[in-house]
Amino acid sequence: MARAATAEGALIDLEKHCWPWSLMLVPVLQPRLYELANNHIWRTQFGFRDWYADTAPAYMQLDMPAGLFSEWGWIDFGLQTYYALLNCGFRLQPTAGTAAGVHPVPLGFGRVYVQLEGPLEPHAWLEGLRRGRSFVTTGPMLLARCGGEPPGSTLQIERGASVRISGEVYSSQQLERIEFVHNGRVQRFAPPANEPRQPAGYVSRFEADVTIERTSWLAVRAFEGREGGRWRFAHTAPFYLEVAGHPLRPRRMEVEYLVARIRQELRRNEGVLSAAALAEYRQALAAYEKLLEEAE
Predict the structure, then answer these.
(1) Pick from 219, 255, 214, 238: which is nearest to 92 by CA?
(2) Looking at the structure, do residues 30 and 86 belong to the same domain, yes or no?
(3) Would you say the C-alpha torsion 108, 228, 34, 266 has a positive or negative sign?
(4) Its pTM surpasses 0.85
C-alpha cells in the first residue's frame, strides 16, 4: 500500500527514528520525510526519558543522565540518526509533528515551513516539502541560503571550491548558538548578535564560507536556551553539493550502528514475524552491509 501511495505522489514520513522498524524502513520503503521535531518534544515538561534508551549508540555521546534521555539527549539522538542516514545517501527531508490530542502538545508547537515560489496551494506546498524547501522549528524562524539557493537545492561544485552559507534567525528569546552541519560535523558561526526588534523579539544574521572537497550536504540549525535546561530549536533541510568523481561516503561507526540495530531486530523477531516481514529486515541488512564496504 505504501509503495502504491508513493507511486501516486504521496510522501511517506518515518515519524520517530527509534521504533524497532524505523531503520528497516529507510532502505526498504525509502520514505521521503524524517521528523526532526517529533511528538516527544513537548512544550510542557519533557516526558519520555526512557523511550528506547537502550538503542542509543555510544559513539553519539548523548546526554543521558543515569542512562535516561535529557531533553537535549533526545533531540540530539534524532539529529545524529538523521545525519547518519544522510551520510548513507538517503535524501530524507525534515518535517515535524505534535500528536496533539494524544500527547500534551499544542497543535503546531513542532512545525515545518515550506518556501513557495507562488501562491499557497496544497499541491505546491507538498512539492516544496518533497524538494526540501523547508525548515522545522519549535521556536526560532530560520531562513538560510547556500550559494544564494534555498534549502533542498543541489549545487554542482568544483573540488576545493567554497560556498557561502548565509541567512538570519528571528527569535522571541535570545539565541544560544547558530551552527552549520557539514556531513554530520557540527561547526558554529560567530555568536548570535541577538539584535532587538520592534515591538519584540530578536534577529541574528549569520554567514560563513565552507570549503567543499567531496560530495557533501550542509544544513543550518539554531537553538534558544530556556529556563530549566529546556531548548527550542530550528533546523533547515539539507543543501546538497555534488563534486564529480568524489562521492559522499558514510562513516563506519554510523553504518555499524545501523547494521547492529537491524541484526538486533532480526534476533528479537525470529519466530515472531512472518517470513515476508523478516525478509524485509534482511533486505535492509543487506543494504546497510553493502554501505559498510564504502564506509570510512
Answers:
(1) 238
(2) yes
(3) negative
(4) yes
